Amino acid sequence: MEAHFTEWLNLGIRWIHMITGIAWIGASFYFVWLENNLNRSNPREGLAGDLWAIHGGGIYHLEKYKLAPPQMPENLHWFKWEAYATWLSGVALMLVVYYLNPSLYLVKPGIDLAPGMAIAIGFGSMIVGYMAYHLLCNSALGKRPALLGAVLFVLLIAAAYGFNLIFSGRAAYIHVGAIIGTIMVGNVFFTIMPAQRALVKAIENNTTPDPSLPAKGLLRSRHNNYFTLPVLFIMISNHFPSTYGSQYNWLILAGIAMLAVLVRHYFNTRHDSNKYVWTLPAAALGMICLAFVTGPQMKSKATAAPQTVEQAATAQMVEPTAPAGTATGDFAQVNSVIQERCSVCHSATPSSPMFSAAPAGFMLDTPEQIKAQAAKIHAQTVASQIMPLGNITQMTQEERDLIGTWIAQGAQLD
């Protein structure tokens, strides 16, 4: 029963995180689009520009003031709680998923790191990450946006590399995302909102607003805009073990983050010209290249034994190279290993107290289920070796090699 309630707690917090994240990201994307598409030619006095738009059957006229209107409107809408709720729910989700079971989900198998120390490193990295970012933005480097972006990129990938040495692949990725998310919400709390409050206070006091504060807030808002797509990838990455499960997962994260920034830059600049339109096909080509270089080794077709159509389809999905010196993959042995090491969780009736149902509906009770899931089994247990979680059932390398050989030979059941 405890596993059942933990699963629903995970679901509830994850859903809240997704809802608030959509609200925050949607507002961020919209206001950056709005800023980029303002008509700045001959605006009326006091305005920076305006924009006409149609949506949902209505026509809207939006105006942006250079600093502020002569008098404050009666109702002024603020955008802050979306950011705060997203960060708070994200931290709660990390607590439930990683920090309540650090030896299983957080710490890398084989690493002698106390759970408490692992949690301290994880949470402390978010604070240190924001402080480093804030200092860099306020330094001379802050006046050189391109160089600042390059330095931040290198530091975040260095963090990913460091996390990968002590954390599981999924935990390493999610903590990089947590650092970025903390920077983003820190920008809202410590820079953007104070700038907005100062602007409103100056209007109420009938004094001239300081133009440097809104400018700084706008800059941090643009930083958040570019951070968004890498964070979104990290949020969905735990469904794709070929990324976080690779020994080079930090490089894969670097590649995808760079491609995401290119895509975001195109959408941020397309109002001005199409000189960055090349970033879209470049990003698509980059994803194809990443899929190719992260794929399993190809089996030599010249030496491969004849296969049935079904066997060929299985081999095409997996295409591993059988480990040298391993015994012939016998299904009886493979089934014994899977039932002992995997089915404690991946079963219609899991014997593990951590799960009330098979994770992701992935069941390995019957030979037919095992054969049907051969490609996924290879990806999770042989190629990336991220399963079993934390290697809690102590699967050996010999057992992984046995499974890999069986799949390489066509995943036969007899």
In terms of structural class, how would the helical and strand content be classed? mainly alpha
Helix content: 55-70%
The main sheet orders its strands as 1-2
Number of DSSP-assigned strands: 2
Low-confidence stretches: 298-327
Q: Beta-sheet strand percentage?
A: under 5%
Order of helices and strands: HEEHHHHHHHHHHHHHH
Number of domains: 2
Rg is: 26 Å
Arithmetic mean pLDDT:
87
End-to-end Cα distance: 39 Å
Major sheet size, sense and barrel closure? 2 strands, antiparallel
Shape estimate: elongated
Number of helices, where a helix is a run of at least 4 consecutive DSSP H or I residues: 15
How is this structure best described in words?
The structure is a single chain. This protein has 414 residues and is mainly alpha-helical. It folds into two domains: 2-23 and 79-293, no CATH class; 309-408, no CATH class. It has helices at 2-36, 81-99, 102-106, 115-138, 145-166, 169-204, 212-236, 241-244, 249-269, 279-293, 309-318, 331-341, 367-372, 374-383, 397-408, and strands at residues 47-55, 58-65. Strands 1-2 form a two-stranded antiparallel sheet. Strand 1 (47-55) and strand 2 (58-65) form a beta hairpin. Helix 5 (145-166) packs antiparallel against helix 6. The chain is elongated and about 80 Å long. The relative contact order is 0.09.
